[in-house]
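User: structure tokens for this one?
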Amino acid sequence: FWCRLGNMENFNNTLSLIATIASAIAGAYAARAAYLSANSALEAQKSAGDAELRALLRELSSASSRVVVEESRIQIVGNDVKRAYRTLAMHTGNSTNSNLALYVAETDKKMITATELAKDAALFSGGAKSLRLSPLEEIERVLSRQIEALHIVQGIRDELTREHLSLESDIRDNKPAIQ
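Assistant:
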């Protein structure tokens, strides 16, 4: 009977050892799975951050390009406005009037403002590659500045366009707008 009991103890110890080894192996697989899962989560987070960065850079590039395009339009409309002022002054006989110089100077000032904003925007209009390694906060700050510049140049263009249309109407009607 005692022999059997000793064998039983060895059998239990062996079973316990096998269970311990199986548990250790399962634990190792679980640790590996957790590691791989954490790695996947980090890669997904990095991928999401990269996607956000690309979207911000694309938006920045688009806004900056639009500022540059608006500036080109402003130069055209601004020159049309100055030409219309001169034409109107000649039609009314006021070509030496100081108000003409003032109106032309105001138009030039608007055109210069647009040019300065476009110079800054041109730095970021080709994909904003210079900011690719910058923190998101910096990219967002530059994007906000370019969106603001876009609103400014659109306002300048709208104002010059209205002014040009009004001057052209005055020229057609022979109204002396320059006093």
